[in-house]
Write a structure and sequence with these properties.
With 416 residues, this protein is of the alpha+beta class. The chain has 12 helices and 22 strands. The strands form 4 sheets. An 8-stranded mixed beta sheet has the order 1-7-6-5-2-3-4-8, with helices on one face. A 7-stranded mixed beta barrel has the order 9-10-15-14-13-22-21.
């Protein structure tokens, strides 16, 4: 017995000096391999599929079939053929996954074996298949080819569309897997701490596209949840803290049957920081914002004065249970208007001296539900959760004061 990835060279070597009668079964035929093998036999019969879908899709080539007929090779049409089998009289049998096509010999991952001798079982199987076959005539081949030609462009366009959709899904899946592989310590910590909090029963949703082309996480009764017998009603069109499958933070806009537009940034007005009534804040959970300074954190808080001039930045580590605050810093390059140096230094000193108070204000700001003045801002739902057609299992988690949404599981297939 001989095992190989590409059966064609093995057959050529075997038949070169030992011609026998051949019976060749291959659903699809392209290229010259089938003719080369058939010519090496004393005689040859080729069994294949010949129909409009096969030729229109390009799975088999009209030119290859016509060449076989022109070279007086007997070709038989065998409906529903799926076997890839070559029987060399009483000498050997070759079988496996490989069609006698260009892709079968060069691109596809195939596996075939050649076994010496031809058993009675193989002979009976071949005889049974032969009884269902009909001889291919040039006239029938011509008619099938003409019908296939009329549809080939539609097949090509549909195939290209399907391949684009597949590439999109594969890219999204790779990104999701990469995100999970690259989960930082704080991302894993967020998911771990959420698992310790009281949770609702899970609920399944699916990424869909609405009539306006917007991507939404679609489900049923997404505003009402129960945790431990207590009902929690989310406010429609408000934003709630949400944790992705990878442990990333965002603020999702909620409605009764859909979640949409996930913000990675929260901007607060004056008065949110106790003891500094004129300050404003921009809280950013995006990877890009947090990457401005090395460290295991997942929030960057930019503090601004009443003129919206930057005072300083504070990096924080929030795991939904605890929050760690790092000393306030003056970043060199931010691209934003800045307050004067003295005002900035005073802001840094105040935050560092009042770290616990500042931390409580930030925790309240990121966990409290709120409503944007511009409701349709932020990342699309497919960017945060997953591509169109993927399904996601969510639950509501009880924090100390407020609640948050969490993605428990995601799959690449649409819901039932």
């Amino acid at each position: 017995m001989k095992f190989t990835r590409n059966i064609v060279p093995l057959l050529k070597a075997q038949l070169q000096n030992d011609p026998v009668e051949l019976k060749i079964f291959s659903p699809y035929l392209t290229g010259e391999a089938v003719l080369e093998i058939a010519r090496l036999g004393k005689s040859a019969k080729v069994y294949t599929l010949v129909n409009v879908p096969v030729l229109a899709s390009g799975a088999s080539c009209h030119g290859t079939l016509k060449t076989l007929l022109d070279n007086q090779i007997a070709v038989y049409v065998l409906p529903d053929l799926h076997a890839k089998l070559i029987v060399a009289q009483d000498r050997f049998v070759a079988l496996g996954s490989q069609n006698l096509t260009r892709r079968g010999a060069t691109q596809n991952l195939e596996a075939s074996i050649r076994v010496r001798g031809v058993s009675k079982g193989i002979q009976a199987l071949v005889a049974k298949m032969e009884r269902k076959a009909t001889l291919l005539t040039p006239e029938f081949l011509h008619d099938v080819h003409e019908a296939a030609q009329a549809l080939s462009e539609e097949y090509k366009k549909l195939l290209e569309k399907a391949e684009r959709a597949q590439r999109t899904l594969v890219a999204a899946d790779r990104a999701r897997r990469a995100a999970l592989r690259s989960v930082t310590g704080i991302d894993a910590e967020v998911r771990s701490k959420l698992a310790d909090r009281p949770q609702s029963n899970p609920r399944e949703c699916e990424i869909k596209q609405d009539k306006r082309g917007q991507y939404l996480l679609d489900g049923k009764k997404l505003l009402t949840w129960k945790i431990g017998g207590k009902t929690y009603d989310l406010e429609p069109q408000h934003r709630y803290l949400c944790v992705s499958l990878a442990g990333k933070l965002g603020w999702v806009r909620v409605n009764e049957t859909r979640y949409s537009f996930i913000e990675s940034q929260v901007d607060t007005g004056q008065g949110e920081i106790k003891g500094q009534a004129t300050w404003q804040m921009s809280i950013d959970a995006s990877d890009k914002a947090c990457a401005a300074r090395k460290g295991d954190h997942n929030l960057r808080v930019t503090v601004l004065n009443r003129q919206s001039q930057e005072l300083c930045d504070v990096f924080m580590r929030y795991n939904t249970k605890d929050m760690e605050i790092y000393p306030a810093v003056l970043l060199r390059k931010t691209g934003k208007p800045r307050a004067c140096a003295e005002e900035r230094r005073k802001a840094v000193a105040w935050i560092n001296d009042n770290a616990e108070r500042f931390k409580r204000d930030i925790k309240r700001a990121i966990t409290s539900p709120f409503k944007f003045e511009k409701n349709l801002t932020g990342e699309r739902a497919d960017t945060f959760f997953g591509p169109e057609g993927t399904s996601h299992t969510l639950c509501l988690v009880k924090l100390r004061t407020y609640v948050a949404l969490q993605v428990l599981e995601s799959t690449g297939m649409p819901l039932g």
